[in-house]
Design goal:
The protein contains 12 helices and no strands. The chain is mostly helical. It has a domain of 173 residues: N-(1-d-carboxylethyl)-l-norvaline Dehydrogenase, domain 2. Helix 5 runs antiparallel to helix 11 and helix 8 packs antiparallel against helix 9. Belongs to the 6-phosphogluconate dehydrogenase family.
């Protein structure tokens, strides 16, 4: 999600790295305060020995150590839609196809639409979209833990799990304290999105998530994780889904 936010700043808004670093610095002072936002700011500021920014020199291909893949496999085995981590893993897989992407970039057309909106307004949409998507991803993760606990007869203390991550892990953030509070208030909470604190924030942020996903699609900048967050949100809040047609087809 953070990589996609950076890419949207760069390719939709045409921002320079020092400007992006300032944005991430501001974000790190609010509800997005986290280790990963902090190091993203520092990476964007970092210059090589030649005085030029280091980030553009780093090859845009990523492998993965396995944690995301294992989570995706578990999600499929337990039948839980952990779509954001799945999309993040697939985005890494796609990045690894560098030679193919270079060839495709010369053959396959993209969008001719350019961003013409208000830059500051879009950045605020992006901040809220990142917060909403992060919340949705955590909600999905705890859905998987809940299902695994039910199947395996585990008794998990979800609040303590959130605090453990806050203690010494790359996903540590202020946000995890809010998750701990939600499970302390209601240990039987079925989904984080239904906690009053988070439902209020997702309600306020989801319009911005729509703006970001729509703008990314129009301009032709890939945003698979943001898109997955919105698709899950709209699916989860749907009283009726088209699975009745699927069942009829079967």
């Amino acid at each position: 999600l953070i990589c996609e936010a950076y890419n949207l700043m760069k390719d939709v808004l045409g921002m320079e790295q020092d400007e992006m670093a300032q944005v991430f610095d501001e974000w790190n002072k609010g509800e997005l305060d986290s280790f990963l936002i902090e190091i993203t700011r520092d990476i964007l500021k970092f210059k090589d020995t030649d005085g030029k920014y280091l980030l553009p020199k780093i090859r845009d291909t990523a492998g993965q150590k396995g944690t995301g893949k294992w989570t995706g496999i578990s999600a499929l085995e337990y039948g839980v839609p952990v779509t954001l981590i799945g999309e993040a893993v697939f985005a890494r897989c796609l990045s690894a196809l560098k030679d193919e992407r270079v060839k495709a970039s010369a053959v396959l057309p993209g969008s001719t639409i350019k961003f013409t909106g208000n830059k500051a307004e879009f950045l605020e949409h992006l901040r809220k979209a990142l917060y909403a998507s992060k919340l949705i991803s955590y909600a999905q993760g705890f859905m998987l833990l809940r299902e695994a606990a039910e199947v395996n007869k585990w008794h998990l203390n979800n609040g303590s799990i959130a605090l453990m991550w806050r203690g010494g892990c790359i996903i540590r953030s202020v946000f995890l304290g809010n998750i701990k509070d939600a499970f302390t208030k209601n240990p039987q909470l079925s989904n984080l999105l239904l906690d009053p604190f988070f439902s209020e924030r997702i309600s306020g942020s989801q319009p911005s998530l729509r703006q970001v996903v729509a703008q990314a699609a129009l301009v032709g900048v890939p945003a698979p994780a943001f898109s997955a967050a919105l698709a899950f949100y709209d699916g989860y809040r749907s009283r009726v889904l088209p699975a009745n047609l699927l069942q009829a087809q079967r």
